[in-house]
Design goal:
Mean pLDDT: 82
Oligomer: single chain
Shape: elongated
Largest sheet: 10 strands, antiparallel
Number of strands: 14
Strand content: 15-25%
Low-confidence stretches: 144-154, 160-167
Structural class: alpha+beta
Distance between the termini: 141 Å
Length: 341
Amino acid sequence: MSKTQRAIKKIEKRVATNVTKGFGSVLKSIGNVFVRTFKLFDSKLTIMIVPHSQSKVVNFQTNVFALFLGILLFIGILTSFFYYNHRSVSANMEISNLMDQNRQTLASLDELRDENANLFQAAKRFQTSLSQSLSLLGIDQVKSNSDVSTSNSDLSSLFTSTEMAQGTSREVADIKELTTYLEDAVKPIEQIGKMLKTQQNLFTEIPSICPVKNPNYHISMAFGPNLHPINGTWYIHKGLDFSTWRSGDAVLATASGQVVTVGFDNSFGNYIIIKHNHGMYTRYAHLNSFRVKKGQTVDQGDIIGTIGNTGVSTGPHLHYEVHIGSDVVDPAKYININLSK
């Protein structure tokens, strides 16, 4: 073996010896730490409880490990108590909020049910009006898709049904039925619209609107038997008297036609007569002023004069008549007015 190899061998032995010694020193140090720690935790302690009175002193022995473990256990129990107490308070608050929301939801549900009941009352009135209108116009009435064999009672299945699908509330089922009915009602209403559109000219040729433009009017005297406002005797009043409590309010042509008379009469005062198609005439009396001339063609809704107090009159008003041929008829049959106004 050469000198170099012998030198390497010595170095290796020296390094191995030093590593072994160092590792042994580390293990020894760790062991000393464990021993000292064990001795520390195993140290004996005496705890004495000395009362202020002359009672017997209470003392007991323990070691550091048991005391440390007891302290950790106490801290753990105390921490758990505060944690779960906080969770309990939060849970109670959440439950309280949920109860409040539940009460609000129940109140909203009651309100919804009330509105649903009002909706069905309105639907009943709508059904009756639509059925009457369809009958007068000769249009087939609405039939429910859910029961085609049912007669033209429209909403009969909706208002008499007592069997509901399981899991579906009464309100939801009723609303679905109402939706179906309204969808079916669209077609006859469209037919009514088409009919009105085709008959639009006819409506403008009959006296079908109120002759007074001011909506704040009242009927001071109706058509038919009345006491004369001047001599107090009974007589047949041949028209309607419209009063707005003042002169100067606009008077409208109630139908399209031609002005045949613009004049003055001791009884009617300033008056206008318009000739319409189908043998109809309208008279507007006690006027304050004229806005048309004899022979002029007017459209329904045109202003022809103003309310006045001319002729035999006790105050500003419009005396309005409708004639069919030689007969005088009640104007209220042709216009939508409230005689109690």
